[in-house]
Amino acid sequence: MMNDWNNITIYLEENGDRKAAETLSRQLGVPIANSIGEALTLVFDGTGLSLVGYGMRYQGDFARMLNRVTKGRLHHEMLVKIAKTKTDHPVAVDAAAGMGEDSFLLAAAGYEVYLFEQDAVIAALLRDALRRAEDERLQEIVGRMHLQEGNSIALMPQLTISPEIVYLDPMFPPRKKSGLIQKKLQLIQKLEQPCANEQELYDAAAALHPKKIIIKRPLNGALLADKKPSYTVKGKAIRYDVVVL
């Protein structure tokens, strides 16, 4: 479900990609404006696509994550530890991809990752971030990330692959103190609401018959769909509930 949708603007700077701007304009049914809007604006400039609004600017950039996947750091990531497998060519499904950071970690660990993102604006930002991942080290990783825009509950049954894991990270409920939320989430939470159909999401994931369903939750948040996990791995601010099937 979209939030702040009626107020969104598309703005094309002189050195921006006009074809991409016009394509997104048609897709969203939003005209290209002559100036940045008062609320949320999708800005096409020489660097790519950014989301601007409320005094903030966000652009996806997987290069910022290289320090997490190089020099032996990758295997210290909690998600990678949980997803560890002996399968030669493992497959993962990320049913609520957002900006794809967790999928990037899984792809860096060798997974072929199928990402679903239902919000058209977030999907456009993610697609642009994947396009700009030109570093050789990044290309190998993002080459294993396959983005599909749409509702994963409807689209997952169409998959013909058998994933080792299905990863569920629906939008967390907003925190009371917005100053504690990182810039990306402050803007993206204005686009996409927390998941309202948790049971359907979980059932669609289970129907793929993965070995594990990994669910990312706030540290003290409620269980997704009241599903008791097989075990839980806790970090400082989040936890992973793991259901072994």
Give structural notes.
The chain is built from 9 helices and 12 strands. It is globular. By secondary structure, it is α/β, with parallel strands linked by helices.
List the helices and strands and how they pair.
Blueprint: E1 9-12, H1 18-28, E2 32-33, E3 41-45, E4 48-53, E5 56-58, H2 66-69, H3 78-82, E6 91-94, H4 101-108, E7 112-117, H5 120-131, H6 136-142, E8 145-149, H7 152-155, E9 165-168, H8 183-188, H9 198-206, E10 212-218, E11 231-234, E12 238-244
Parallel strand pairs: 1-2, 1-3, 6-7, 6-9, 7-8, 9-10
Antiparallel strand pairs: 3-4, 4-5, 10-12, 11-12
Task: Kindly summarize this structure in a few lines.
The chain has helices at 18-28, 66-69, 78-82, 101-108, 120-131, 136-142, 152-155, 183-188, 198-206; strands at 9-12, 32-33, 41-45, 48-53, 56-58, 91-94, 112-117, 145-149, 165-168, 212-218, 231-234, 238-244.
Please state the average pLDDT score. Answer: 91
Give the beta-strand count.
12
Distance between the termini: 30 Å
Derived from helix and strand composition plus strand pairing, the structural class reads alpha/beta
Sheet having the most strands: 7 strands, mixed
Strand order, largest beta sheet:
8-7-6-9-10-12-11
Q: Catalogue the unreliable spans.
A: none
Order of SSEs: EHEEEEHHEHEHHEHEHHEEE
In percent terms, what proportion of residues is strand? 15-25%
User: How many helical stretches?
Assistant: 9
Tell the overall outline.
globular
Instruction: Provide the gyration radius in Å.
Output: 18 Å
Helix content: 25-40%
